[in-house]
């Protein structure tokens, strides 16, 4: 991609047709870290390649990190001391606030939160992932390789139709017996292997988050907690104009993570602006009692979130390539349960174990099959894709059924039912079994919470003076290392019908805003007017939304280039 | 095969950047009021030396000649090349040396260092700008010199070096030369180190971590040599050993900063039209 002439001598590896490692792990998030740690601890020469300037600089999550009692791996077992060194606060209180017509009805989610939970901490990814990466480097270096940052793995290395390694922007091709793609929701490797795509907006959520600066003492005081406690609150109801999704607020050591998560199909269909929906939450009177008097946003971030119910791949492997975490769609979002990182950790550990077993039998090509059996045998896959959802959830999402349920709940009879059954609804939200069957309709996100608030809620009594920054200011506050002349996204079809949804759905673009990625333009030619879309990748925060809602050739920027999240 | 030993020559120079440099009323440099920094061109020598170290291992030493205040420069150089040790050749007797006397001093110090397999230098200093010291030093050492090097390929076993170098300082014309070790290499500003393999990058990362640890107690790795250490006769070094006579320094008059400027209202189509008209002749093409 570089236009500069290469005047250097070929390195020895290029002459020999590529260097080789036993295993290559692509991506240094929790999934990649778990895989690399297990491999290295068992003596596998493991190279970890991370495209960010530092691990965590490309990673965004809500984010709550769980350790499940039933899971095959937990992060603190693989990385002792991680909670003391690199997480924010343990979540000790968990609520859902249903908002409607100026009322709020709060449901205590302790039941579902504590079910199968060994511990749950809020995290910020730059701190967490960079700490993990240091440990991973120590352990992989001891096994003969190590971790490199600033390297973008841009494809698979093929030989006679088989995957034999990876190609990189910054390095000569690398051969390996095992390639773990832990390269996130927009995994280029998963797509090149034909395992994942960006086709259906229904399979995705988009999350948008503000990290709000609050001194530790103020966090404690405003939430009535001490430094070893934390709060998680979810928000649903009438604050998002009927776009299907909800909000969250998590306490960190010295900040709050406040964000919104919406179904991408709903977001695109309603032509909703993600940053405005976030602002609707940030400025809602109900949040006034927790926000500081002087609202100061440290970072605006966004992320595409796979809906594992639809997107989780049942056999996420091809040849030597094993997909882990978001790259395989392993992100569980069922009502108030939002679990991704813990499943990535488990999957990473299982992928590594699968390779070790196959290696012991001198049949490393069988690692993928073994990984698949472990995903299903460990119960991980049924958490990601419950069979109950297949039977009930999909039916509930069919339009006619959904509308009927909506109308029923909103009817006088339904409202009476809600009044009578208020406690039952609270219990339903606390039942992992029922949540697995929860359909993704307006009823679950908007109608039921709104009616609950209207019928059972108390008036919101707080005031909120928060003035979140404009989108322009938010982009201006982010750090970028722009790869001038190397746009990483190409707009394949600039027609408004094909790609216009990106103008609103892109979290750093907005209708009528000239400083974002996507803009609508009118081109006059031969007396005709044509609505087209133009793209400037400079403000891109690499979420991948446009890969789904627009016609693009989408790749990540080169190593170390693009946005550099400090919080994540 | 003995491990490679590489030395990098560096120099402290006045910081000529705007806002740092101080001149007196007659336009002479005020040395006391201008901070000393590492000669900017030495950066290229350090980059070349680091690439050699990453690819072939061995030991890297940094050497400079100057007053004790140059220690910070050495510190910076040592940090950027992850050097194992550094030598400051420092003595009042060496003061006011021209390039000849400097070359004699440096060559003697390099011999004392153990005749490194490779010596790197930047192509000229920002203060003297002669570009003589490097070539004169290797003449004293009687080793081959390759200048304007933009890429290097070393074969430690055969003890040979291939280099791509700019001909007439032009990137359009590059020749490849080969010589034997030991050799003296002057790195061009166009020198771009290449780390295209994961193992090279891992090695660089390992060296960086080691260097950070050394930086904690840099004094353990810093050696001072005076004329007695080097067994040099004061008559042949410093001012006394310098045949060059600087007869005078003429300040260069400042260029006039006057330019014609016209302000144009960007919303005025007629005015913007005139801008286009003005610029068209410079645009090239049609």
Characterization of this structure:
The complex is a heterodimer of chains A (568) and B (286). Chain A has 568 residues and is of the alpha+beta class. Chain A folds into 3 domains: 12-88 and 123-196 and 313-384, FAD/NAD(P)-binding domain; 89-118 and 198-305 and 388-477, D-Amino Acid Oxidase, Chain A, domain 2; 479-564, 2-Layer Sandwich (Alpha-Beta Plaits). Helix content of chain A is 35%, strand content 26%. Chain A is built from 23 helices and 26 strands. In chain A, the strands form 7 sheets. In chain A, strands 1, 2, 7, 8, 9, 10, 16 and 17 form an 8-stranded mixed β-sheet that branches. Chain A has an 8-stranded mixed β-sheet with strand order 15-11-14-13-12-4-5-20. In chain A, helix 2 (30-41) runs parallel beside helix 6 (125-142) and helix 16 crosses helix 17 (412-429). The radius of gyration of chain A is 23 Å and the shape is globular. Residues 1-5 of chain A have low confidence and may be disordered. In chain B, helix 3 packs across helix 4 (133-141). Chain B is 29% helix and 23% strand. In chain B, strand 8 (160-167) and strand 9 form a beta hairpin. Chain B has helices at residues 42-56, 71-81, 99-113, 133-141, 198-216, 269-283, and strands at 5-9, 12-14, 36-38, 59-65, 85-89, 118-122, 145-155, 160-167, 170-180, 183-187, 222-225. With 286 residues, chain B is an alpha/beta fold. In chain B, the strands form 2 sheets. A 9-stranded mixed β-sheet of chain B has the order 9-8-7-10-6-1-4-5-11. In chain B, strands 2-3 form a two-stranded antiparallel ribbon. Chain B is built from 6 helices and 11 strands. Chain B has a single domain (5-236), classed as 3-Layer(aba) Sandwich (Rossmann fold), CATH 3.40.50.620. Chain B starts with a strand and ends with a helix.
Helices and strands in order:
The complex is a heterodimer of chains A (568) and B (286).
Chain A: H1 12-16, E1 19-26, H2 30-41, E2 46-49, E3 64-68, H3 75-78, H4 82-86, E4 93-100, E5 103-108, H5 110-114, E6 117-122, H6 125-142, E7 146-148, E8 153-159, E9 162-168, E10 174-181, H7 188-192, E11 204-213, H8 216-223, E12 231-237, E13 245-251, E14 255-263, H9 264-269, H10 274-282, E15 297-306, H11 308-311, E16 317-318, E17 321-323, E18 332-334, E19 337-339, H12 341-360, H13 367-377, H14 380-384, H15 387-397, H16 399-410, H17 412-429, H18 432-435, H19 442-456, E20 458-459, H20 471-477, E21 479-481, E22 489-491, H21 496-499, H22 501-505, E23 518-525, E24 528-535, H23 545-549, E25 552-554, E26 562-564
Parallel strand pairs in A: 1-2, 1-10, 2-7, 4-12, 10-17
Antiparallel strand pairs in A: 3-6, 4-5, 5-20, 8-9, 9-10, 11-14, 11-15, 12-13, 13-14, 16-17, 18-19, 21-26, 22-25, 23-24
Helix pairs in contact in A: 2-6, 2-12, 12-13, 16-17, 16-19, 17-19
Chain B: E1 5-9, E2 12-14, E3 36-38, H1 42-56, E4 59-65, H2 71-81, E5 85-89, H3 99-113, E6 118-122, H4 133-141, E7 145-155, E8 160-167, E9 170-180, E10 183-187, H5 198-216, E11 222-225, H6 269-283
Parallel strand pairs in B: 1-4, 1-6, 4-5, 5-11, 6-10, 7-10
Antiparallel strand pairs in B: 2-3, 7-8, 8-9
Helix pairs in contact in B: 3-4
